[in-house]
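Sanity check

After download, print the first record. It should look like this:
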Amino acid sequence: MSDSPRENTKSIYLLHGEENFLINRKFKQLERQSIEPGFEEFNKFVFYGLDANATHLMDQATTYPMMGGRQLIVLKNAHQFKNWDQLLPYAKNPSDFSTFLIVHPEKKIDGRTAFVKALKDLVKRGKAEIYEAKKLYDNKVPGWISEEVSSLGFTIQPRTAAMLGEYLGNNLEGILKEVDKIILNLEEGQKEITLDHVNKFVGVSRKFSVFELQKAMAYGEVDKAATIANLMSQDPKTNPIYMLTGALFNFFSRVYKVHALKSKRDADVAKALKLGHAFFAKEYLSAVRYFSREKCEEVFAILYEFDLRSKGIDSPTEKEDRLLRAMVAQILTKID
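Expected structure tokens:
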């Protein structure tokens, strides 16, 4: 008996979730797997969610392919399809000669429908697969990068993967394009992607704000804060230093105030700082661990100095990108 991917293809696949890139990649993989090369014109039928008729869809899925082999029925934009209950008979008894591929981008499908419940029963019987493409949070991106690089036959250290994630955020498609670019530029026989490769070949596209910079400082993440400052310095028009000194002064003024509070409970800190929600107090409570009262005072002096330097007072005019990096570097030395 053959173990070819085509013979092991399920009757129904549901691809859903918020990460459209992962859905599209899975769709292309299943599309190649589900139909014989050269038979796409005869054995592939595409319906679109907004206009799809459930009866026509089931009729096609239960009609034996004219050219033999396996046929592929695709329901694209399934997040716009409404008549799931009308597909219930097919979900209970799908054709063995058809692959029904449901592409439901943008969001999770409603799992309360009878159709999805029947589909889950098919999964247990080995006749269906449900693939959820979850949106990756930033802290999950480095691990995902490591897995992807490994699948390509290369290695990457956790710190390098984290740096790549900092540069590109959770733009998974963009990350893979940059990884491919790095691999193409590796010397023959080289199997590890290093920090030098990332700095040399990756085009930085992510925009950072002072809020992300101060958050990294608040949690004592020196390397991350330095990276953010470096990226922000490359766009001085968006990140003028006078705005950064003002924002950081306000931030450290609040940290300084937290030191004087008798109660360090989230709710009390949020009330004292007028944050609106207790959750936001955690950042300031973390910052007081890394910046003592004395360190805050030293930071105030640094901010004052660089504010004057940015205006050319008592010093020659300096480029803003250098000033920003130097200012942040000095502040980071104050982390206990």
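If your output differs, re-run the checksum step. Summary of this record's structure: The CA atoms of residues 135 and 220 lie 27 Å apart.
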